[in-house]
Amino acid sequence: MSNALKDLLYKMADDALIIGHRNSEWTGIGPMLEEDLAFSSMAQDKIGHAQALYKILNEVLGEADADTLAFKREEKQFKCCHFVEQPIGEYDFSIVRQFLFDHAELIRYDILTQSSFQPLAQLAKKVKGEIKYHVMHADTFVKQLGNGTEESKARIQSSLNYAWHLALGIFEKSEFENDLIAENIFVGEDELKKRWLEKIIPVMESANLKVPATDEIKIVYGGRKGFHSEYLKPLLDEMCEVVRTDIDAEW
Amino acid sequence: MNTLDPRIKRLSLDPSTEVEKTNSHLITYEVFHQEKRGKHVTHVGIVHASNPEMALVMAKEVFGRRGKTTNLWVVKTSDVYTFGSDDEDMFETTPEKTFRDPAYYKVRDRIEKFQNKQKFEHEQRT
């Protein structure tokens, strides 16, 4: 069972770390001061979630400490989905990514508050308020842009179309799916995806956005198994640059 | 934005919430911060936003990112009514009317007592 738990925690933590790092790239260049602050704070929240999950891996499941897991692993060892690895692009893409990713996060953490694995249930209870705000932020922007000018409508729709099959890759199943369900640790990715669609479709409709058609073949899988997009390696190189200059330094 | 209290509109996550149409310019909203439930709200500054929902979303990180927050209020700046700055003379003499301050007499007595004691001690020493 500990392998199943590790797999779940690693993919959640790695998603949070990588999206947190990506979103922090907007710090200082956000579209306006207020939004710069908001997006930066939310990026910090994500890195905090990653840290808390690595801590559980370390203290409960015997893995290395959080800094080692974050900064001293090889690309292959990361379990994040391709969606979070993508560059920040234009602001419409970053907002659409937050919308699609954080709705899944909110449902995932909400479900995990009932998990039989107590350390995760406690963490989920603690942080779901933070993710609720991330979703509120994304929904507000998506609705505003979707009901805005011709340009904002076109931009948000085309970003949504581009992001769709990447976002569906969040729900890539692991070999431990049935174990997690049987042990009441987590309801599984299929159930999560179902609830996710139920949540996001009404928001897209109220934003006058067309729900992109799903082509199963186009869904971008691989991240959960350690196969990543071309964007992860450069991100890790940059993120780990300082640590690698003196790998054994005490911080 | 439905609420049981007809005086206050609350932001909700309900996807059916309508977006208020705006032009391309952002307007300002005054932000009020409430630290604890039941405590009064305090004006803390402004945010730029296109509608009240966006103003609340922005206010949360601009003014609720440190310390304790229970709630935030936003009010469209143009909905605030105020006196003209040249009417300030209406308030000029008010600080003199200390008899309107219920704590005045009590405090005044204690301050005088303390000052007399200080004076007395000073005289004793010299």
List the helices and strands and how they pair.
The complex is a heterodimer of chains A (251) and B (126).
Chain A: H1 2-24, H2 33-59, H3 66-71, H4 82-85, H5 91-112, H6 118-146, H7 150-168, H8 177-182, H9 189-206, H10 232-239, H11 241-245
Helix pairs in contact in A: 1-2, 2-6, 5-6, 5-7, 5-9
Chain B: E1 27-34, E2 42-49, H1 52-63, E3 71-76, H2 104-125
Antiparallel strand pairs in B: 1-2, 1-3
Question: TL;DR?
Answer:
The complex is a heterodimer of chains A (251) and B (126). Chain A is mainly α and 251 residues long.
Task: Report on the architecture of this protein.
The complex is a heterodimer of chains A (251) and B (126). With 251 residues, chain A is mainly alpha-helical. Chain A has a single domain, classed as Ferritin, core subunit, four-helix bundle (Ferritin), CATH 1.20.1260.10. Helix content of chain A is 67%, strand content 0%. Chain A contains eleven helices and no strands. Chain A has helices at residues 2-24, 33-59, 66-71, 82-85, 91-112, 118-146, 150-168, 177-182, 189-206, 232-239, 241-245. Chain A is globular, with a radius of gyration of 18 Å. Chain B folds into two domains: 1-81, Phenylacetic acid degradation B (Ubiquitin-like (UB roll), Roll); 85-125. Helices cover 27% and strands 17% of the residues of chain B. The interface between A and B is medium-sized, with 26 and 23 residues.
What is the residue-averaged pLDDT of chain A?
96
Structural class of chain A comes to mainly alpha
- H/E series of chain B, N to C? EEHEH
Please name the CATH architecture of chain A.
Answer: Up-down Bundle
**Radius of gyration of chain B, taken over Cα atoms and rounded to an integer in Å:** 24 Å
Which of globular, elongated, flat, extended, rod-shaped describes the shape of chain B? elongated
* Backbone CA Rg of chain A: 18 Å
Largest sheet of chain B: 3 strands, antiparallel
Overall 3D geometry of chain A?
globular
Number of strands of chain A: 0
CATH homologous superfamily caption of the largest domain in chain B: Phenylacetic acid degradation B
| CATH class membership of the largest domain in chain B | Alpha Beta
Q: Compute the number of strand runs of chain B.
A: 3
- Taken in chain order, the helices and strands of chain A follow as HHHHHHHHHHH
